[in-house]
Amino acid sequence: MSGAQYCRGDGGMERDFMDLAGGRAAAAPAMAALAVVSGMAVFGLIDNLVPTITDSIGLWQFHALRSMVAMTLLGGFGLWAGSRFAVRDLGAVALRSALVGTAMVVYFGCLAFLPIAQVAAGLFMAPVFVIVILRLLGVRIGLWRVGSVAL
Protein backbone atom coordinates (compact mmCIF):
# COMPACT_ATOMS: atom_id res chain seq x y z
CA MET A 1 0.00 0.00 0.00
CA SER A 2 1.40 3.36 -0.94
CA GLY A 3 1.55 6.42 1.26
CA ALA A 4 -0.71 8.18 -1.22
CA GLN A 5 -3.46 5.60 -0.66
CA TYR A 6 -3.25 6.17 3.07
CA CYS A 7 -3.30 9.92 2.68
CA ARG A 8 -6.27 9.87 0.32
CA GLY A 9 -8.19 8.25 3.13
CA ASP A 10 -9.39 5.13 1.31
CA GLY A 11 -9.17 3.25 4.59
CA GLY A 12 -6.47 0.74 3.66
CA MET A 13 -4.05 1.56 6.47
CA GLU A 14 -6.86 2.05 8.96
CA ARG A 15 -8.23 -1.40 8.14
CA ASP A 16 -4.77 -2.92 8.58
CA PHE A 17 -4.45 -1.41 12.06
CA MET A 18 -7.93 -2.56 13.02
CA ASP A 19 -7.08 -6.05 11.85
CA LEU A 20 -3.90 -5.92 13.95
CA ALA A 21 -5.82 -4.86 17.05
CA GLY A 22 -8.51 -7.46 16.50
CA GLY A 23 -11.09 -4.89 15.39
CA ARG A 24 -11.00 -3.07 18.72
CA ALA A 25 -9.29 0.13 17.47
CA ALA A 26 -12.41 2.01 16.39
CA ALA A 27 -14.40 0.91 19.43
CA ALA A 28 -11.87 2.13 22.00
CA PRO A 29 -10.58 5.64 21.22
CA ALA A 30 -9.84 6.22 24.92
CA MET A 31 -7.61 3.14 24.97
CA ALA A 32 -5.84 4.35 21.81
CA ALA A 33 -5.26 7.77 23.38
CA LEU A 34 -3.94 6.13 26.55
CA ALA A 35 -1.53 4.02 24.47
CA VAL A 36 -0.21 7.11 22.68
CA VAL A 37 0.25 9.07 25.91
CA SER A 38 1.93 6.08 27.56
CA GLY A 39 4.29 5.64 24.63
CA MET A 40 5.25 9.32 24.67
CA ALA A 41 5.85 9.17 28.43
CA VAL A 42 8.23 6.25 27.97
CA PHE A 43 9.90 8.08 25.09
CA GLY A 44 10.40 11.10 27.38
CA LEU A 45 11.91 8.88 30.06
CA ILE A 46 14.32 7.40 27.52
CA ASP A 47 15.31 10.88 26.33
CA ASN A 48 16.26 11.86 29.86
CA LEU A 49 18.27 8.69 30.47
CA VAL A 50 20.39 8.86 27.32
CA PRO A 51 22.88 11.49 28.58
CA THR A 52 23.47 9.51 31.78
CA ILE A 53 24.18 6.18 30.09
CA THR A 54 26.31 7.40 27.18
CA ASP A 55 29.40 7.22 29.41
CA SER A 56 28.95 3.49 30.05
CA ILE A 57 27.57 2.08 26.76
CA GLY A 58 27.78 3.06 23.12
CA LEU A 59 24.96 4.49 21.09
CA TRP A 60 24.66 1.35 18.96
CA GLN A 61 24.30 -0.79 22.12
CA PHE A 62 21.58 1.51 23.46
CA HIS A 63 19.74 1.43 20.13
CA ALA A 64 20.05 -2.36 19.85
CA LEU A 65 18.73 -2.87 23.39
CA ARG A 66 15.87 -0.44 22.77
CA SER A 67 14.95 -2.32 19.57
CA MET A 68 15.00 -5.71 21.31
CA VAL A 69 12.70 -4.46 24.06
CA ALA A 70 10.34 -2.90 21.50
CA MET A 71 10.19 -6.10 19.43
CA THR A 72 9.47 -8.15 22.54
CA LEU A 73 6.63 -5.84 23.52
CA LEU A 74 5.20 -5.77 19.99
CA GLY A 75 5.40 -9.55 19.74
CA GLY A 76 3.61 -9.90 23.06
CA PHE A 77 0.90 -7.50 21.90
CA GLY A 78 0.51 -9.47 18.69
CA LEU A 79 0.07 -12.73 20.58
CA TRP A 80 -2.40 -11.10 22.97
CA ALA A 81 -4.42 -9.60 20.10
CA GLY A 82 -4.35 -12.85 18.15
CA SER A 83 -2.77 -11.12 15.18
CA ARG A 84 -0.09 -12.16 12.80
CA PHE A 85 2.53 -9.80 11.51
CA ALA A 86 2.61 -10.59 7.82
CA VAL A 87 4.92 -8.60 5.56
CA ARG A 88 3.18 -7.65 2.32
CA ASP A 89 6.00 -5.68 0.69
CA LEU A 90 9.43 -6.64 2.04
CA GLY A 91 11.22 -3.87 0.13
CA ALA A 92 8.98 -1.15 1.57
CA VAL A 93 9.37 -2.55 5.08
CA ALA A 94 13.16 -2.73 4.71
CA LEU A 95 13.36 0.84 3.40
CA ARG A 96 11.15 2.19 6.17
CA SER A 97 13.10 0.27 8.80
CA ALA A 98 16.41 1.59 7.48
CA LEU A 99 15.13 5.18 7.46
CA VAL A 100 13.58 4.95 10.93
CA GLY A 101 16.70 3.26 12.31
CA THR A 102 18.91 5.97 10.86
CA ALA A 103 16.64 8.69 12.24
CA MET A 104 16.68 7.14 15.73
CA VAL A 105 20.46 6.77 15.77
CA VAL A 106 20.84 10.43 14.76
CA TYR A 107 18.19 11.51 17.30
CA PHE A 108 19.65 9.62 20.24
CA GLY A 109 23.16 10.56 19.15
CA CYS A 110 22.18 14.22 19.37
CA LEU A 111 20.84 13.69 22.89
CA ALA A 112 24.36 12.87 24.05
CA PHE A 113 25.69 16.25 22.88
CA LEU A 114 22.80 18.73 22.83
CA PRO A 115 20.27 19.83 25.44
CA ILE A 116 17.05 17.79 25.43
CA ALA A 117 14.98 20.89 24.56
CA GLN A 118 16.91 21.48 21.32
CA VAL A 119 16.71 17.85 20.26
CA ALA A 120 12.98 17.71 21.07
CA ALA A 121 12.43 20.86 18.99
CA GLY A 122 13.93 19.03 16.03
CA LEU A 123 11.74 16.00 16.71
CA PHE A 124 8.62 18.15 16.75
CA MET A 125 9.48 19.34 13.23
CA ALA A 126 8.64 15.84 11.93
CA PRO A 127 4.99 16.67 11.06
CA VAL A 128 6.16 19.63 8.98
CA PHE A 129 8.53 17.37 7.06
CA VAL A 130 5.73 14.83 6.55
CA ILE A 131 3.53 17.45 4.92
CA VAL A 132 6.35 18.80 2.74
CA ILE A 133 7.32 15.29 1.57
CA LEU A 134 3.69 14.35 0.89
CA ARG A 135 3.31 17.48 -1.22
CA LEU A 136 6.47 16.59 -3.15
CA LEU A 137 4.95 13.14 -3.78
CA GLY A 138 1.91 14.82 -5.33
CA VAL A 139 -0.54 14.28 -2.46
CA ARG A 140 -3.06 17.06 -1.98
CA ILE A 141 -2.63 18.64 1.45
CA GLY A 142 -5.96 19.56 2.97
CA LEU A 143 -7.01 21.89 5.75
CA TRP A 144 -7.14 19.08 8.35
CA ARG A 145 -3.49 18.14 7.80
CA VAL A 146 -2.31 21.75 7.90
CA GLY A 147 -4.39 22.36 11.03
CA SER A 148 -3.00 19.30 12.79
CA VAL A 149 0.55 20.41 12.09
CA ALA A 150 -0.23 23.94 13.27
CA LEU A 151 -1.73 22.55 16.45
Describe the structure.
There is one protein chain. The protein is mostly helical and about 150 residues long. Helices cover about 75% and strands about 0% of the residues. It has eight helices and no strands. It has helices at about 5-10, 10-20, 30-55, 60-80, 90-110, 115-125, 125-135, 145-150. The longest helix has 25 residues, at about 30-55.
How far the N terminus sits from the C terminus, by CA atoms, comes to: 28 Å
Could you list the spans in which at least 5 consecutive residues all have pLDDT below 50? 1-21
Bulk shape: globular
Counted by DSSP, the helix tally is 8
Tell me the strand percentage band.
Answer: under 5%
Succession of helices and strands: HHHHHHHH
Major sheet size, sense and barrel closure: none
Evaluate the radius of gyration: 17 Å
Share of helix among residues? Answer: over 70%
The total count of strands amounts to 0
Structural class: mainly alpha
Short description:
This protein is an all-alpha fold and 151 residues long. The protein has 8 helices and no strands.
